[in-house]
Write a structure and sequence with these properties.
The chain has a six-stranded mixed beta sheet, with helices on both faces. The chain is globular, with a radius of gyration of 21 Å. The chain contains eight helices and six strands; from the N terminus they run H-E-H-H-H-E-H-H-E-H-E-E-E-H. It has helices at 16-22, 44-52, 65-77, 81-96, 136-139, 142-148, 173-195, 253-293, and strands spanning 25-26, 125-129, 158-167, 208-216, 219-228, 238-248.
């Protein structure tokens, strides 16, 4: 008899979180044996400062009440996850003034899972880079593309290091956290893989390079994701998730403005992370190209 195919574990499954942990992806709040906590990224205080940085478009006196009321009304009337996805989320992003460029409900079918047997991400909303920002030889590298290109629809944004997951009123807070944990780890690996392009020995510094967020029952939560290699070169990387902050978005306008400010600042910060990684990888590729141009077909210097 043919072997029975075992379906991938999904975030709502009870063993999803343990599979992530077994594969080196550690969720917010995880403690190692003996009570040792996940190590904080070295730039943690600076990230929180950046998230709270004021934006000129977001002042209580200049903020329109209309968009905020539309959002809170949609949230109060939502009774299912689909209603949150298709009514509450758009109203919230509109009230925030979030720029176009994000994608919704895209299966990351081209991404190799970090952990075998775990379902691929399908974030409700994600931001990434335009594909043409990346040198074609970098973007089409067979191994790297399985880390940075989410879909076979190759015009979609790549290096998906900012994501948002939502749940309906009856949805599981634990489930949405697991989704965010997986999304963020995939985004952090994408940035780190670009940073490591052309390196003999990748550098693991535990710096945040991806941000995930969740929205559930009126509360927006945000997390930073980093990659480390605590056991030294050649050992398995580990992915850490830390909560940055949370905001009760339906509570009052001032709290909404704080959450919206952090959300937009996080989008900008994630863009900085991936743009720096892309610039480095593109620079390495151009150096390789120049070296190849200076060599003859037999590997000797041209003209010799």
């Amino acid at each position: 008899m043919p072997a029975t195919k075992v379906p991938n574990t999904r975030p709502k499954d009870a063993n999803f979180e343990q599979k992530l942990i077994d594969g080196g992806i550690y969720p917010y709040g995880y403690e190692f044996r003996g009570g040792r906590q996940l190590p904080l990224p070295p730039e943690w205080e600076e990230i929180n400062r950046r998230l709270a940085q004021r934006r000129p478009s977001f002042s209580p006196s200049g903020f329109s009440e209309g968009g905020y009321r539309e959002f809170t009304r949609a949230d109060a009337r939502a009774t299912s996850e689909d209603e949150v996805k298709y009514h509450v989320l758009p109203a919230m992003l509109k009230a925030m003034g979030v720029p176009d460029g994000g994608e919704q409900n895209i299966w990351f079918t081209n991404i190799d899972p970090i952990v075998a047997g775990v379902s691929r991400p399908r974030p409700d909303f994600y931001y990434g880079a335009q594909p043409d920002q990346i040198h074609p030889d970098v973007r089409n590298d067979e191994q790297l593309s399985r880390h940075i290109t989410p879909s076979s629809r190759t015009t979609l944004p790549v290096v998906p290091n900012f994501s948002l997951e939502v749940k309906g009123p009856d949805g599981s807070a634990a489930g949405v956290l697991r989704q965010a944990c997986n999304n963020g780890a995939v985004g952090a690996r994408a940035v780190h893989s670009l940073e490591a392009y052309g390196q003999d020995q990748p550098i693991y510094n535990n710096n945040v390079c991806a941000i995930s967020s969740t929205y559930h029952s009126g509360v927006l939560k945000m997390y930073g994701h980093s990659v480390a290699q605590p056991d030294g070169p050649g050992t398995r990387p580990e992915y850490y998730m830390h909560q940055l902050n949370c905001w009760g978005m339906t509570g009052d306008k001032d709290t909404f403005l704080k959450g919206a400010t952090a959300f937009k600042n996080a989008i900008d910060l994630a863009e900085e992370y991936r743009d720096a990684a892309i610039a480095r990888a593109n620079g390495v590729r151009r150096t390789i190209d120049r070296g190849e141009e200076g060599m003859g077909g037999d590997g000797t210097e041209a003209g010799s």
